[in-house]
Amino acid sequence: MKYFWMSFVWLVISCQQNDRQIIQLQKQVDSLKTVIARSYKPGFGDLMNTVNHHFQELYRAGQTKNWRYATFEIHEMQEVLKKIITYQAQRKETTRLKMIFPSLQNMTRILKNPNQSDFDKAYNHIQNTCNACHKLTGYDFIKITTPR
Predict the structure, then answer these.
(1) Largest Cα–Cα distance of the chain, in whole Å?
(2) Alpha-carbon distance 16 to 21, whole Å?
(3) Which CATH class is domain 44-136?
C-alpha cells in the first residue's frame, strides 16, 4: 500500500509539472502569435509596383536583345507575384493573379530560342493579360503601357 501512495503522489506531482509546462508553452505561443501579427507584411500595391518595375525592365531587355536579362526579369516577376499570393492571400484580387502565369511561362519558353518578333508578341500578351486582370478586379483605371 505504501508503494501505491508513493506512486499516486508522484503521479500528481508529475501532472502538476506538466500543467505548468503547458501553461508556459501556451504563453510563448501566444506571444509569438502577437509578434507575427505585428510584423511587416508587404502591401499589395507595393508588390505590384515591383512587378511593374520588372515588366518595364523586361521590355528594355527585349529591345536591346539582352535575352539573359529578359529571362531574369521574367523570373523576378514570377517571384514577386508568388509573394503577393503568399502575403495577400485574403484579397479578392489575389485569386485573379493566376491568370498571368501562363503568359509568363510562354515568355520563358520563347526566351530559350529568342527572336524579336516572338518576344514582342509575348510581351504584348503579358501586357494585355495584366490589363484584363485589372479590369476584372475593378482596377481598370490602372493601365499597363509600353515604356517609352
Answers:
(1) 93
(2) 9
(3) mainly alpha
Burial (CB count <10 Å: 0-12, 13-18, 19+), residue 94? middle
Residue by residue, pLDDT tens for the chain (148 residues) are: 666 655 655 555 566 666 778 788 888 888 888 888 888 889 999 999 999 999 999 999 999 999 999 999 999 999 999 999 999 999 999 999 999 999 999 999 999 999 999 999 999 999 999 999 999 999 999 999 999 8
* Other beta carbons less than 10 A from residue 35's beta carbon: 8
Q: How many residues does the chain have?
A: 148
DSSP state of 77: H
C-alpha to C-alpha distance for 5 and 2, rounded to whole angstroms: 5
Is the distance from CB of 69 to CB of 57 less than 8 angstroms? Answer: yes
Is 0.85 topped by the overall pTM? Answer: no
How far is residue 82's CA from residue 76's CA, in Å, rounded to a whole number? 10
